[in-house]
Each structure stands twice: as C-alpha cells, then as structure tokens.
Amino acid sequence: MLRHWILLVLLCAALPARAALTIDIVGAGERQIPVAIVPFANEDKLAQSITEVVSLDLKRSGLFRLVNPTSKTPHEPSEVVYADWRGVEALAIGSVETQQDGRVTVKFRLLDAVKQTELFGQAVTAKGDQMRAIGHRIADMIYEKLTGNPGVFSTRIAYVNRQGKNNRLVVADSDGYNDRSVLSINEPIMSPAWSPDGSQLAYVTLEQGHAVVYLQSLVTNQRTVLSNARGSNSAPVWAPDGKHLAVVLTRDGSPQIYLVRPDGTDLRRLTFSGAIDTEPSFSPDGHYLLFTSDRGGSAQIYRMPVEGKTAERLTFEGGNNFSPRYSPDGKSFVFAHQASGRFNIAVQDFQTRQMQLLTEGGWEKRPSFSPNGKLILFATEAQGRGILAIVSSDGRVKQKLSSQAGDVREPTWGPFLKQ
Amino acid sequence: MKNLVIGVLLASLLVACASDEPPVGDLKKRGRAANAPLSAAVDSAPGASVAVDALNDQNNASQHSNPASISNEVADQEAEAKVVAEEAAAKAVAEEAAAKAVAEEAAAKVVAEEAAAKAVAEEAAAKVVAEEAAAKAVAEEAAAKVVAEEAAAKLAAEEAAAKLAAEEAAAKLAAEEAAAKLAAEEAAAKLAAEEAALAEARAAEVQNASLEAAKAAAAKAAAEEAALAEARAAEVQNAALEAAKAAAAKAAAEEAALLAAAHAAEVQNAALEAAKAAAAQSAADAAAAREAANAAAERDAANVAKVTLELEAAKAAAAQAAADAAAAREAASAAAAREAANAAKVAAELEAVKASAAQAAADASAAREAASAAAARETANTAKVAAELEAAKAAAAQAAKASAAQAAVDMAAAREAANAAAAQNAAKANAARDAAKAAAAREAVAEDSLNIPSSLLAKRSIFYPNDIDAIPEQDKRTVQAHARYLAEHQNRSVRLEGHADERGSSEYNLALGQRRADGVKKMLLVGGVKEGQIESTSYGEEKPMSTAHNEAAWSQNRRTDLNYNAK
Asked: Does B525 touch chain A (CB under 8 A)?
C-alpha cells in the first residue's frame, strides 16, 4: 500500500511544472525578427525542455517571429548548412550534458544566419531543477543581442490572489511559473511593492481592522510592521536607494504622503494639502515623486520634488487619472486614465506632455513597468474575474495572464536580479 | 438598711425584666415580705407582756402564801420582782418601741422607695410615650412630606404630559401647514406647467405656420423657376424655328436667285444681288434672332440665377424657420425638463417635509417615552422615600427599645410593639426595594433606545454620492441621533467603517473611505461624544456589499457603517 503511495508521489514529482497563470498573446511588434531555435542535443532527456522556455519567452515579447526548424538539427556550428536557413536572421543551437553529480551543463551559441558568423556562445552549469531559469537566461541574452535592450525573462512579479475571503500574496516568475505564497490571510491584501534589490516586499493588509503597512523578507519570510498609526497606513513604495520608503498616512487628518526609514524611524511629512494625496512613485534618480491627488477637485497626477513643497499638475484630459509610475529611464510615466466611466492604461511623455492610450478594455488599473521599460503589467477583468495583462510600451503586443481559480489583482513587476 | 432595700428592689426589677409578670405585683409581695419582720418584731412584744403577766401572777401568788415574814420576804421579793418586772417591762416596752420605730422606719423607707421606683418608672414610661409620640410625629411629618412630594411629582408629570400634548399638537399643526403649503405649491407648479405647455403649443403653432409659409414661398419660387425654364425653352425653340425659317428663306432665296439667273442675266444679276441681299438680310435677321435668342438666354440665365438666389434665400429662410422651430422645440422641451425637475424637487421637498414630520412624530414619541421613564423614576423615588421612612420608623422603634431597657413599667410592652412594628417595616421595605428594582430594570430596557427598530438609531449606514465624503444633508439627523446616544451612554463605543465603490484605484478608494469615516467622527465629536468612544477606519473598495459593475451596486458601496458590535 505504502509503495503505491510512494509511486504516485514520484509520478507527480516527475511531471513538468505547471504555471499558476496561463498566458495568451495578441498582436505583434513593429518589426519582428525571424529567429529559429533548434532543440538542443540531449535535452529530450531532461524533465523540462530548455528551448521550449526560450521560444515561449521570445514569442511573448512580440518582437520575434519563431521559425520552425522542422527536421534540421544542427548542434554545432560545423553542422550548420546556412543555405537551409534562408529567411532566418538568427539561429540558436546548443547541447546539454548531465554530469555525474546530477548537475546539468548547457552549451549554446547564437549565430547570425545572414552574415554566417557566431554572435556569441556560452556554457552554463546548474542543478537539474534550474532548467527554466537557464532557459530564461538564454532568452535574455538573445533578446539583448538582437534588440539592444536587456531582457526581463528572469525577473519576477508579485500579485494578490483572492478566493472568497482568502487572500494570498504570491511571488512568481514573470511568465507565471514557480509561484509561491508569501502570505495567506482571510483579510484583504493590497499594494505590494518590491525593494530595489528584490529581497523584500512591502504591502498593506486589513487584518488588524484598519490598513497597516508591513515589510517582509523574501529570504527569511519574517515580517515587521512599518507603520501602524491610527486610521489608514498604505501605498508603500521604496526609494531607488533603498534607504527610505514613501507611505500614505491619515494620522494627521487627511491622507498625506510621508517619508520613513525601513525600520519605521525618522518619519517626515512631505505633502500638506488637506486633500487626498496618495500613490507616490519615485523617479529613477530619487529626486522627484509622482502622486495622485484630488486637491484640484478631481483625482489627477502631480509631480513634486521630494525635498520641496510645490507640486506641478501633469494630467488634464479625462475625468480622473490614478496610479502613476515612473518609467525606468525617467522620461515618461504610465497611469490609469478614466474617461466616460472607462479605465484604460496610458503613458505620457514628460517632454511632449502628450498622452497615449495603450488599451481600450475599459477596466484596467494599477500599471507598472518592467525593469527594461518595454512592457507594462496591469490588472484587468475577463469573464467577470480579475486577471493580469501585459502590454508593450508602444501598445502593439498584448498578453493576458489568468489564474485557475479566484481573482488576480494588485500586480507589480519586480526589479532586475543582481547576478 | 435603706441601701439594702434599694438593692433588693433593683434585684427584684431585674428579675422582673426577665420574667413575664409585671413587676408591680412583686413589689407588693416584697412589701408584704418586708412587713413580715416588722410584724414579727411587733408580735414578739406580746411575749414580754405575757412574761410581765406571769410575773404579775407570780407576784399575786406569792402575796397569798406568807402573811408576815413571808410578807417581808415576799414584800422584798415582790419589790425585787416588781423592779425586775418593771425593768423587763420597760425594756420590752423600749424594745417594742424601738422595733416599732425600726419597723415604721423600714415601712416608711419601703413606701418611699416604692414611691421613688414608681416615679422613676412613670418617668421612663412617660419618656417612652414622649419619644413614641415624637417618632410618630416625625413619621407623620415624613409621611406628609412624601404625600406632598408625590403630589408635586404628579403635578410635574401632568405638566409634562400637558406640554407634550401641546408640542404634539403644535407639530401636527406645523406638519399640516407644511402639507397645505406644499399642496398649494404643487398646484401653482402645475398651473405654471400647464401655462408653459400652452405657450409652447402656441409657439409651435406659430412655428408651423411660418414653416408652411416658407414652404409655400419655396413652392412658388420653384413654380416660377419652372415657368421661366419653360419660357426659356420656348424662346430657344422659337429662336431655333426662326433660325430654321431663316435658313429656309435663305434656301428659297437661293432658289429664286437660281431661277432668275436661268431667265435673264441682268435680271439674274440683279435678282442674284437682290437674292444675296435678301439672304444677307435674312442671315442678319437670323444672327439678330440668334443674338436676340442669346440675349434672351442670358436674360433667362440671369433670371434663373436670380430665381435660384431667391429660391436659395427662400430655402435658407425655410431652414432658418425650421431651425428656429427646432430651437423653440428644444427650449420648450428644456423648459418641460426644468419643470419636471422642479416638480421632482418639489416632490423631494414634500418627501423631506414628510420625513421631518415623521421625525417630529418620532421625537414626540421619544419624548413621551422619556416622560414615562421619568414617571417610573418618580415612583421609584417615592418607594425609596417610603423605604427610608420605614427605616426611620424602625430606627425610632430601636431607640425606644434601647431607652426602655432603663425604664421600669411599660418597657416590655413598648419593646414588644416596637419589635412587631420593626418586623412589619422590614417587610414593607423589602417589598418597596423589589418594586424599585423592577422599575429600574424596566427603565433600563426602555432606555436602551439603540434596540428600538423604529428609531433613527436603527440606521447604521450613511450613503454618499460619487467621490463625495461630506455627510449628505438628509443623513445629518441620523448622525446627530447617534451622537446624542453616545454622549448619554459614555460606556458605549462605536467603530466607523468607511467604504467606496470600485471606480478609482484601490489606494484612492482606501483614502476616500477614510475621509468618509473621519467626517462622521467629526460630527460625533461636535455632538459631545468623547474621542475614546470612537474608532475610525477604512476598508476602501475591499469589502463591497455588492460586486456588480453598475450604479445600483456602486451606490450601496459608497457608505460609512456605524458598528456598535466591533470587538
């Protein structure tokens, strides 16, 4: 009897990993680079195919057209017949070798099929359960080599999964795999925010009967209270140097923005409007804050220097504008734009002050940039359930990420992992 | 001897206190006993006289036995015996006297002490009576006071009731007035609406008429244009005909010329020339006719242009008229809408007045309840006073008991009466206390108006328009009622929970909910509630009452809840 149970458990462990979020892709980039990813030698012996991860990653970016290698299987540059690869710009080949200690060595090369030269090659050794991570690394390298921008396939996202009363704060790979709950409670969780080094999450829960801000280490899973003043404590966001956070507190009456150290000391009030000031977002150099305020009568987006007192209004179109986030290059910001009862994601350039709508769905909120500034993650709805979606910063490529059960909400994109 | 007697008397009194029989009899007994030794002493006196008689008999006997010597001896003996007897008699007499004196002294003492004791006893009895009387008097005073207070309370209650009735009547009057006013306003509004409708109809008619006129003008212009066109066509035709005729004439002329030429040369020439001239003439005529036709055509074109212009003008006028008509219609519909809005406003005001009338009625009933509670309180007070009176009576009885311990006579009776009275009073006091407790319990239940379903306090939610956190006018009374309740019950506390609908970001909605709760908190503080009784929190859009994407759901979620059951 026991043997049967053991067998069953082993069988489940041997199955390939399943994502908590399933992804659909729509749309294409302005120009799609045709690439071919040839399955690596011996990778069919692995539990997880590396080239499958690479292909999906490159496809999801919308900037590549994946060409089917069909029956051609070169694994070494010497095996490549370039005449076979007309119409393809870049070709990825490689091989996999399992060591005696169970670790896996992956060798791969990216070839320029037009110039018939090697663009780069690498060998990576890792544990057998790290195949997805290796695939993401390879995809990042291919993406950066061919587009000039760093890839975000190895980054993570955080979101809240709500089923009935139960709320779980989840951290997952940016493709939805490898999800784990870092918090599970029967009260609402809101506003997760990543520390700049990706080792901590700040978030808000209502488990104490009112909104309280917590900091939790993703390494030790220990958490501390950042702010528990009377009324609501919410909207935490880290400064780029990691030495401060901005939070919104109602302790002095209206919801206002304050600075505080991660240990809760050195509290400093930044806004004095007497209206609602919330959702602060730091500029990449840490000198400016974007925030939502209704000091002018309706919710709009303002910018102010962290050390100064005067705020400049940035949005003028539409009924209300919420949830601003600086782009990683500091030249634009993304936000939720409400007009005629519909919520859409928009970007606005600081220089030109021009607003561009990126979606037309009608119920889109809480956008955040990927760390390379090319993708925007946000919350939306489909068939009455909360799901996540990604749109490229030029609005052309769209992805939907939906979970098996419950509503997915409050997403936020994590930073580059320091290697 | 006196002290002994007094001591004996006291001892006998103490014994009498312990026993049930009145002490008076004992004193008499004791008096009789005291008399006994005296009587014994007196009785012993006759023994002396017997001895004297015996002596006398002896003397007599000795006188009869020896007349001479004996007579001397006898005489001596007789004399001695006589002396002895006389001494004894004297002694006996003296003793008798002494004993009598002692006895009389004792008797007198006893009598005196009896009298004294009696006097003391009477004093004590008198004191007890006096204190009883005093206690009675006090009790009667107190009773009288209570009666007076009762009467006063009754008066006050009646006054209050009368006041209430008056206020009710006044409120009713006011409500009726307001209703009448509203009815009048409604009628006026209706009239105004009807007038406006009439005016609108008239204006519409006018517009229609002008429209039709324009239409007629346009039709006329069109007809004129058609006629002109026809004339032009006819003229063109005529010109063509004339041209044709000219051509025919020319041909005829040529024929004639040819014939003439066939006949004679000169005639031919002349005829030719004549024919040429005629042809030229006819050509000139034709040209002239053509020019005339052209001129006519130009004139017609000009006319047509003029007519088209006029037509366009007429069309423009018609369009303008149509636009005016549309504008007038819009204005009329706007006016109608305004009227509808006014009617709605009037209806809303009617509702508000009705609500305030209901409020007045509720206030009246609440005041009535307060008055009845006050009356209950008064009866409880009366019972309390009665209990105090009884306690005073009991205390008086106790005092009488204490003082009776020193009295002689009516002490036991008075104490017994006092005991009985005390028992009675204690029983009465218990009954009164129970009654008071019951009344207090009833009062407590009636006073927890938080649990009355029909009162304003049963409303535990304030609802808001979109993106507003100020308390709407129609909900201010609810908040004020809660403020009053909390100010009067400082042991109660409330948690204010602000919510918002899902439009906007979750953070903005958390802030909006907090401002809503804080607004209610401010009004409670102004109403006299203490800071420590209020907790103010926000759930933003995270705990909606309804999750649909429509105004019906959103309006339910824009609220502040007053939660009295939070832990």
From this structure: no
A131 and A161 share a domain? no
Domain that holds residue A364: 156-413
pLDDT at A376 over 90: yes
B136-192 pLDDT, tens per residue? 878 788 787 888 788 887 888 788 888 888 888 887 888 788 888 888 888 887 888
Residues A179 and A171: beta-carbon distance below 8 Å? yes
Chain B touched by A278 (CB under 8 Å): yes
A248/B507 Cβ within 8 A: yes
Q: In this structure, is residue A378 part of a structural domain?
A: yes
Regarding whether A215 and A115 lie in a shared domain, the answer is: no
Q: How many domains is chain A partitioned into structurally? A: 2
Rounded to two decimals, the ipTM of the complex is 0.91
CB spacing of A231 vs B537 below 8 angstroms:
yes
| pLDDT tens digits along B334-346 | 676 787 768 677 7
Least confident of A404-418, B222-236, B281-295: B281-295
Interchain contact, B537 vs A190, CB within 8 Å: no
Interface test with B, best of A189, A205, A232, A322 (most B CBs within 10 A): A232
- Inter-chain contact A188–B536, Cβ cutoff 8 Å? no
Three-state DSSP class for residue B60: helix
Side-chain half-sphere exposure of B64, counting CA atoms within 13 A: 6
* Residue-level pLDDT at B441: 63
**Residue A20, in any domain of the structure:** no
Whether A386 contacts chain B with CB within 8 A: no
- What's the whole-model pTM score? 0.56
pLDDT of B57 higher than 60: no
Mean pLDDT rounded to a whole number for chain B? 76
Long-range contacts of B315-322 (CB under 8 A, 24+ apart): B315/B218, B317/B214, B317/B217, B318/B211, B318/B214, B318/B215, B318/B217, B318/B218, B321/B207, B321/B210, B321/B211, B321/B214, B322/B211, B322/B214
Nearest to B508 among A250, A322, A341 (CB): A322
Instruction: Identify all chain B residues contacting A211, using CB atoms and an 8 Å cutoff.
Output: 510, 537-538, 540
* Domain boundary pick from A119, A147, A175: A147
CATH, range B450-567: 3.30.1330.60
Residue A25 lies in a domain: no
Please indicate, yes or no, whether residues A104 and A218 belong to a single structural domain of this protein.
no
What average pLDDT does this structure show over A110-132? 91
A365 touches chain B (CB under 8 A): yes
Write the secondary structure of A142-178 as one string of H (helix), E (strand) and C (coil). Answer: HHHHHHCCCCCCCCEEEEEEEECCEEEEEEEECCCCC
Contacts of residue B439, defined as CB under 8 A and 6 or more positions apart, other chains included, come to B376, B377, B379, B380, B383
Q: How much is the pLDDT for B408? A: 60
* A248 and A120 inside one domain: no
> Given pLDDT bands bounded at 50, 70 and 90, which one contains residue B70?
low
Q: Are residues A170 and A104 in the same domain?
A: no
Which of A83, A113, A147 corresponds to the end of one domain? A147
Q: How many CA atoms lie within 13 A of A33 on its CB side?
A: 20
Please tell me the distance in Å from B338's CA to the nearest CA on chain A. 25
